[in-house]
Amino acid sequence: MSGVYGKCFDPTGARYGVPTYPFRLAPDGLATRRQLRARGLRPGGQPIAAQVMRANRRAGGHLVAYLYRIDRAKPVRPMTSRKWGALALAMLARRTCPRCRLDVGYCIPRSKGICGLCLATEEQHAA
After folding, report:
1. N or C: less crowded end of the chain, CB within 10 Å?
2. CA distance 58 to 85
3. Please, where are the H alpha helices in 2-66?
4. Angle at 106 between CA 109 and CA 96, to 5 degrees
């Protein structure tokens, strides 16, 4: 057993407190939050059943993803009209330029803070 695999394999949970499996080797019946969401489910308040661990060779250390039991997962709550409205207003705020107050049709980059037209105008005045 390789060193990386051995550090990531702890099915009893003696080392990390929860059962730990190497990347892509988790048993059936467990899923991450994203996998649950793809099935239209959510964890629903259940505790973490296990974790998947992967060695991060670039930065060192390990990457961890928590696993939840599929049979105890609950369906995703449907979006209400109020939630849809709040989401639409939030996206409108991200598309509105604070300088010219126009909806530019795309999310304004946070690094720039203004739309492309205002940015081009600002660069012309600076030159």
Report:
1. C
2. 42
3. 3-8, 33-38
4. 80
Cα–Cα distances (Å) from 41 to 1, 45, 65, in that order, read 35, 12, 17
Please give the average per-residue pLDDT across 101-106, as a whole number: 95
Closest CA to 57 of 14, 15, 11, 3: 3
CB 1 within 8 A of CB 9: yes
Q: Tell whether the model's pLDDT for residue 1 goes beyond 60.
A: no
Place of tokens 């604070």: 98
Residue 3 has a pLDDT of 60
The span from the CA of 96 to the CA of 28, in Å, is 46
Q: Give CA separation, 54 vs 5, 13, 78, in Å.
A: 9, 16, 33
CA trace torsion 11, 16, 18, 24 (10° rounding) = -50
Residues forming beta bridges with residue 41, ordered by sequence position: 75
